[in-house]
Amino acid sequence: MNLIFLGPPGAGKGTHAQLLMRDLGIPQISTGDMLRQAMKDGTPLGLSAKAYVEKGELVPDEVVIGIVKERLQAPDCQKGYILDGFPRTVKQAEALAQFAKIDVVLNLALSDEIIINRLSGRRVCLKCGATYHISALNGREDCEKCGDKLVQRKDDSAETIQNRLNVYAAQTAPLIDYYQEKGLLRTVKCESTVEENYRAVRRALELA
Ligand code: ADP
Ligand code: ZN
Fold this sequence. Notes:
By secondary structure, the chain is α/β, with parallel strands linked by helices. It has helices at residues 13-24, 31-41, 44-55, 61-71, 90-99, 112-120, 134-137, 158-172, 174-181, 194-204; strands at 2-6, 28-30, 81-84, 104-109, 122-125, 131-133, 150-151, 185-189. The mean pLDDT is 95.
């Protein structure tokens, strides 16, 4: 199954993609994680992406299209994959259609108020990609999965969050109509707990 997770920042794309990866054995392909890893490693890709990512702007289409196209050729994508955070513009979606056949687009929906609460309290592990909310950490500072130190993403600051919401509304939300017209869209409301939201995701995929 070739899936796309669409939704505003903080919708839980990464969290649910990781759960599905575990349950279906197909890889999560997160352009955000790939860009952050490249930034951490200081590669040319990372250096060119840094300014955009930290301001909450989109990295140029050609750049992300290139990394996804290459990634999808890897052997582990043969049986399916979960695209998390890509495509984010109509141009990216059109490019994707040239080299991939998508089965389902899951649209994770939630209010701006919940988004802001989630993002401002989010802590992430840069090593394994796990994310946490401070309300559930009870003061813990390291990743439960791999032990690495948790950090707050630079783009999870209050003003950058607002910018990302604006960028989402202007550039990414049009993909809802785009995929609706193609008959691929399924909308899942994601305002509850992770467990509850994940059950809704599974129902939408008819995994029961
Ligand atoms: P979130 O969904 O929480 O905003 P991501 O980890 O998906 O976070 O993305 C973080 C940042 O990485 C984005 O704000 C953007 O700068 C960059 N990015 C990720 N995916 C894309 C993409 N498909 N196109 C352009 N920029 C991207
Ligand atoms: Zn970790």
